[in-house]
Each structure stands twice: as C-alpha cells, then as structure tokens.
Amino acid sequence: MEHIPQHIVLFPDGNRRWAKSKELTSLEGHMQGYKNLLNFSEWCKNRGVKVLTAFGFSTENWNRPPEEVSYLMKLLERCIIDNLDKYNKEGTKVRIIGEKNRLPEFLKKAITKTEESTKNNSNLFLNLAISYGGKWDILNAVKKIVEEKIPVDKIDEKLFESYLSTADLPVPDFIIRAGGEKRMSNFLLWQSAYSELYFSPKLWPDFSEQDLDEALEEFDQRHRRFGK
Fold it and tell me: By Cβ atoms counted within 10 A, which residue in 25, 45, 142, 207 is the most buried?
C-alpha cells in the first residue's frame, strides 16, 4: 500500500453485544475486547502506524452500573500494568488521556508507573483514552488558556491545539469504529475535523487482522483533499 495512516483512532465497540450473543456476561465481553486491543496495537505497529489512540472509557461511561464501572477500572489497570514488559520489549510508548482526577488511586498509580517506564520508547505511541470526552478536552483547553491570560489576538488554531490532550501528536488521519455504529460519540472532536472514517459491522472481539488490512486498503484508495 502506498499510504499508511500515521495516526489511527480506534473505537473498540461491541464488547457487551458480543458477550450477549454468546450468552456470556458483559464483563467477559470486556475481557475479550481488551485482549483484542493488544493484538490490534501489534498489528498496527507491524504495518508502520506510528500512533494509535484507543477509546477505553468515556466520560459518559461513568453512568454505567457501579459493578461494571468497578470491573472496567480494574481491567484497565491490568491492561496497563500486566503488559508493561511487553510494551517495553516492543518499544511502545503508553500515555493515558482524560480526566485522571476522577480515576481510583490504584489506577492512577498504574498510569504513572507505565507512563514513566515507557516514555523513551518510539516504535508505537499508544494513547489510551480513559475518562475522556471530546467536549471535556476542548473545555479543558479553554480553561487553561483563560488561566494563563493569553491575549485574544494570540489565540489561533495552532495555539489552541497545543492545549489539547493530543498536543504533541499528528492529527488522526484514520478513524476505525467496530461494532456497526456510525457516530463519533464525543471522541477527539476537534482533532478529527478531517479524519477519514471507516465503520466495520464486526463486533470488536471478532475484529481480525484481515479486517484491519481491509480497512487500510480502503484508506489507501481514498483521495484526501482537505476541502481543496
């Protein structure tokens, strides 16, 4: 392929529906989805993708049942800590974006340890969005600019983007959403202004390496004009 996206955004959607279809619990569906995310990050790295941002837990997900939220917090901790050696071996730099102050202390500690341990890796930049919302990201940037009392005539798109959670990364050029839904769900709203969108009917735990290749082949064939 001539064109490989440098920054892929992933919606790993459909874990609960996958579990229900197999008469499993929602928690088992989330576990299978987590395993597939590890596979997906490796597939992306092997194909030359430099940045992967995956939706792990949104600001709206706090409204789910307490049992499910508690399980997801522990699963996210496991995803981060249990794979620390794997991240370092494969050269993956891990960073978490979102409202970290809302997270439980055990998860905050896992995040701090992993971000520090992997900060010098450079083969793949893995962003995990935890307690993240696109509206929150924009409002948070506005608040920082106001707090720093930056003059109005100094504020442009470039400066504003430097206050977003993805400030030092290339803008997403390809968004893949599994699970059959076709919406942005309050994710990277500013950053995705000109991203190419790809929707797969596959529920996330069933999304395969072949499915990724099919998505990349379609991306390769698209003509990106950016309004020109």
Answer: 207
